[in-house]
Write a structure and sequence with these properties.
The chain has 258 residues and is α+β, with helices and mostly antiparallel strands. It folds into two domains: 2-113, Aminopeptidase (3-Layer(aba) Sandwich); 121-222, Gcn5-related N-acetyltransferase (GNAT) (Aminopeptidase), CATH 3.40.630.30. It contains seven helices and twelve strands. It has helices at residues 9-16, 20-28, 32-35, 75-82, 139-149, 206-218, 234-242, and strands spanning 2-6, 38-45, 48-56, 63-66, 89-94, 107-119, 131-133, 166-170, 173-184, 189-197, 224-230, 246-257. The chain has a twelve-stranded mixed sheet, sandwiched between helices. The chain is globular.
Length: 258
């Protein structure tokens, strides 16, 4: 097995494109908006790529993404080669079997299983004058809402600059939000994130309206939209299914020390 560090976008995309549904986050991070925060690693056998990993360094604690598929099926071997490249502490999104590569003392926290869901359907425009695009001046209110409604979320303020964060307002108060974790018009992919509704306003289909509105906007520039959702969040999974999203993969999220 040969271990390599990759720096060519086209080469990386050609590896990932055959499994777009499970690799949306990685493909999205090829976009210029994210690219400078990424490091890419592969494992080759007989000149064929057998595993690929992304280390995203755009947050306080880096995140490792490594998902196996029919062709990319040597993730354990790649993790063995990666040990010297990984930071002292990092988040990891891994195919479930890959957690076996780490000893119990390396696992700071295991957040459990999550599902990958994707959609290629065309959404109608669900116009609602309570919804508007969020701006940088809304960041404090966004953080306050997420602290109440989604306290364990990861929110990158820089993502507001994409123009793909929208909010639902009641009497000028932000009570619902939907945004993205990745968005790439070049590679035609997007991944939803930071979807939350204030606890006092749940049960009014606010999240559904926000998702439909955001997906309608995103589909003007992308072909496939994905999202991640915790396996135990049955209500959210059913909501996404009703909106046309399908389960396409599963992974484990955890916080690790090297």
């Amino acid at each position: 097995m040969k271990f390599e560090i990759l720096k060519e976008k086209d080469v990386i995309y050609n590896i990932l494109k055959d499994d777009i549904e499970n690799q949306i986050f990685c493909i999205g991070d090829l976009d210029d908006f994210y690219w400078n925060h990424t490091s890419w690693y592969i494992l080759k056998l007989n000149k064929k790529v057998k595993a690929l990993a992304l280390l995203y360094k755009g947050s306080d604690i880096p995140t490792l993404l490594l998902f196996e598929s029919e062709n990319l099926n040597q993730g354990k071997g790649l993790l063995d080669k990666l040990k010297d490249q990984l930071p002292d502490k990092f988040y990891a999104h891994l195919s479930p079997n890959l957690l076996e590569n780490f000893k119990p003392e390396n696992i700071i926290e295991n957040y459990g299983h999550s599902l990958k869901m994707t959609s290629r359907i065309k959404f109608d425009n669900p116009f609602d004058d309570n919804i508007r695009i969020l701006q940088t001046e809304d960041i404090i209110e966004i953080k306050n809402l997420l602290h109440i409604a989604y306290p364990k979320n990861w929110f990158d303020e820089r993502m507001i600059l994409t123009g793909k964060y929208i909010g639902y307002f009641n009497d000028k108060n932000l009570i619902g939000i939907a945004g993205i974790h990745v968005y790439s018009p070049k590679y035609k992919v997007a991944a939803l994130g930071n979807i939350a509704t204030h606890p006092n306003f749940r049960g009014q289909n606010i999240a559904s309206k926000l998702i439909r509105t955001l997906c309608y906007d995103l589909q003007q520039t992308v072909d496939i939209i994905g999202l991640n959702v915790r396996l135990e969040n049955k209500a959210a999974i059913e909501c996404y299914k009703k909106l046309g999203f399908e389960i396409t993969g599963e992974y484990i999220e955890c916080l690790l020390k090297n």
